[in-house]
Amino acid sequence: MGDAFCSDCKRQTEVVFDHSAGDTVCSECGLVLESHSIDETSEWRTFANESGDNDPVRVGGPTNPLLADGGLSTVIAKPNGGSGEFLSSSLGRWQNRGSNPDRGLILAFKTIATMSDRLGLVATIKDRANEIYKRVEDQKSSRGRNQDALLAACLYIACRQEDKPRTVKEICSVANGATKKEIGRAKEYIVKQLGLETGQSVEMGTIHAGDFMRRFCSNLGMNNQAVKAAQEAVQKSEEFDIRRSPISIAAAVIYIITQLSEEKKPSLKDISGATGVAEGTIRNSYKDLHPHVLKIIPSWFAKEEDLKNLCSP
Amino acid sequence: MAARRNNPSGIVPTTQNIVSTVDLDCVLDLNHIALHSRNSEYFPKRFSAVIMRIKDPKTTALIFASGKMVCTGAKTEAQSKLAARKFARIIQKLGFPAKFRDFRIQNIVASCDVQFTIRLEKFACTSHGAFSTYEPELFPGLIYRMKQPKLVLLIFVSGNVVIAGAKKRDDFYTAFDNIYPVLAEFKK
User: Fold this and answer.
1) Chain B hits for A206, Cβ within 8 Å
2) InterPro entries in the record, alphabetically (chain B) (predicted)?
3) Do A293 and A265 share a structural domain?
4) Which domain holds residue A158?
5) Whole-angstrom Cα distance, residue A184 to residue A190?
6) How do residues B73-114 score in pLDDT, each as one tens digit?
7) Does A201 have pLDDT greater than 70?
8) Is the pTM value of this prediction over 0.90?
9) Of A67, A170, A197, A255, which one has the fewest beta carbons inside 10 Å?
10) A214 and A282 inside one domain
11) Is residue A85 domain-resident?
C-alpha cells in the first residue's frame, strides 16, 4: 500500500502492491504501474521441526578473479561412502579428463585454504597467498619445484606482507612434509621471481620479537599485565647486543616474565611448545639476557629483589 | 701482488679459499687413476669423478673422465696454480698425456673483520635493502648481493664479513672498499 503517480489518472493515487504476481496496481483505475518486481525477501523459509541437514543455499561462492573464468564451472562431486550409482562416478571421471586450465590452481588454492584454516588466519592473508601463488605460477619456471614447500612459502610471505608474521616453524607445522630448509629456499625463490616480474617491489620488513609476543603469550595464558611487561621488555632488549634469533629472545623474555609473576609458571617445556624454540636454546638465550635483566624488565612489573632472586643460569 | 688498496681503516680482506679449473686435454681412465694412486677416492655410484688430495699445498682436486679438473682449497692464487700443476704431474706419471690448458680461477672467498658490531636490521631497511636479504630465522648473517663487482657478501653482527664470488683479487678489494663506509654508518 502506498502512494504513487498514476499515468492514467494523472494524479497521486493509492497504489496496491500485489506480492503474489509482483505487480504494482493503481487502486482507482486498475492500471498496472510496475510488473515483474524482484522480491528481495529471504530465499527460503526455515521451520522449527525441519532437520538442518539440507543446505537451502542455491548460489555458489563469490567470483574469484584469479581463476581464468571467475570460478563459474561446476564440478561433479565424488559420492562418499559406497558409490552406488556407477553413472555418477564415471561422470566425475569424464569431467576430470576434460581440459581444465585451472585445475592445478584450484587444487593449490584448496591446500592454501586448509593450511590457513589450521593456523586460524583471516581471509585477507589467504587471498594474498593465493595471489602470490598465481603470480609465481604465471612464470612457468616453477614446474619441478616441491609444491608443498612453494605453497607454504606463499603463505609465509602473505603473513609477512600483512604485518602478521608467522615463524617458519609454525608454517612447517601445518605444511605437510615441507622442512624449514625447503620452505626457506622456496621463499627466496618466490621473492626473486616476484622481483623479476615487477622490478623489485617486494616489501617485507625484518621480523622483530615484538610481532610474536601477543600470540605466544596468549598461547601460554599469561595475564594482561604480564603480556604488557613482556612487550616492553622485548622493545628494550633490542638496544643491547644480544646475538640470538628474535624468536629465541622472545621465548627467553617470556620465561623471565613468567618466573617473576606470582601465577602458575609454565615450565620450559610449555614455553618450548608454545614458541617452537628448543629448551636448550631458551636456556642459552636466558644466559645471554641475564646480565641485562635489570634494564630490560620494566620497573612497574617487578622489583629489584625479585630480579635478584631470579635463578642465575 | 698489486699495491694494497688504501682503505681508511687499514683493514684488508684475506683470502680463505680459491677454486680453479684446468683442462688436462686428454681422456682419462678414472678406475686406473683410483687404483694406482694412494691419495684418491672414486665411487662412481656417488659421484662420477676421482677426488684426489695432496698435502702441500693442502688442496683437493676433482678429476673428471673428460680430462677436466677442479682444484679447491688453496689459500692464494699462486698456490692454486702450483697445486693444479702438481695434480697434472701425478696424472702424467700415471701414464696419461696430460697438458695444462686454460688454467682459470673461478671463485675466490675472502673474509675480514671490521672490528665493530653492525645493526643488520637497520641495514636491510635502508636503500641497500634491495640488495640485502636478512632472515634471522633462516641464517644469522645478512646476504648482500653486490651488483658492481658482481659478488656476494655475508655480513654478520659481530662485524665479520665474508666475500665470495670474486674472480680476481681486485674484485673483492673493491667490494670491501665499497661496503666499508656503509657498514660504518650502521655501527652499533
Assistant:
1) 120-121, 124-125, 134-136
2) TBP, TBP_dom_sf, TBP_eukaryotic
3) yes
4) 102-198
5) 10
6) 999 999 999 999 999 999 999 999 999 999 999 999 999 999
7) no
8) no
9) A197
10) yes
11) no
